# Entry
Amino acid sequence: MTLRVLIADDEQLARNELRFQLERFDGIDVVDQAANGPEAVTLAETLAPDLVLLDIQMPGLTGFEVARQLLERKVSSHVVFVTAFDQYAIEAFEVNAIDYLLKPVESARLSQTIQRVQRLVASGSPTDGTITENALEQMVRYVAERQNHRRRLALKMNESFLLVQTEDIVYASLVDEVITVVTTAVTGTSNCRTLDELHSHLDPAVFWRVHRSHLVNINKVKEIVPWVSRNYMLRMQDEKGTEIPVSRAQTKRLREHLSL
# Structure
């Protein structure tokens, strides 16, 4: 049988990487890709894929909001979250996700998930069934094993690499598929292919994805500047006082965290 898969992620590179990994398996048909939450809902309703691979932090609707809408609309697709954030594992089960993969996705782990979904589809198992306690324990164990917040990060500078303390990182930005990392002392580039991959190596309680193109150290914010439509700009503690825009989706989180 052929497993029909929809990929939903706001990063083109992340979608391409996941598609490349999936194409290495037999019996996989990637039917389409979505770049935001509303698009994911529309495509899932229209195409009725067997599996939806969902990022969590997407514009328009989060991955959880997408999953809830699919449940409400009785879309029969199975849902697996693919994300850099380990703190959402338990909530994934509240929307009946059958698995939770951490970026960068390991091929062996992805293979296990694909095989599991293939068995569910072949057996005609419903997508709204009760998650077993054993499955919950397995996912919590997997997430615990994958927690790998680094204390140091290698930045490319000219022809060499410099190891910097992650606590000294001020922000990272993605421009033309190159990730530039600015610290309190130096600026370099990261070999990570996406901001999600870089974020997976950092503490998500400290480093926030405030915009699809920017990752900031919340402890290195010097000033919060009101911007258009009740959004904000973050003036950072680098030498230039760089201003980073906060997306609409992250504005609420910022207000709650800083009591704005």
Observations:
- The first helix runs from residue 12 to 22.
- Residues 128-133 have pLDDT under 50 and may be disordered.
- The chain has eight helices and 15 strands.
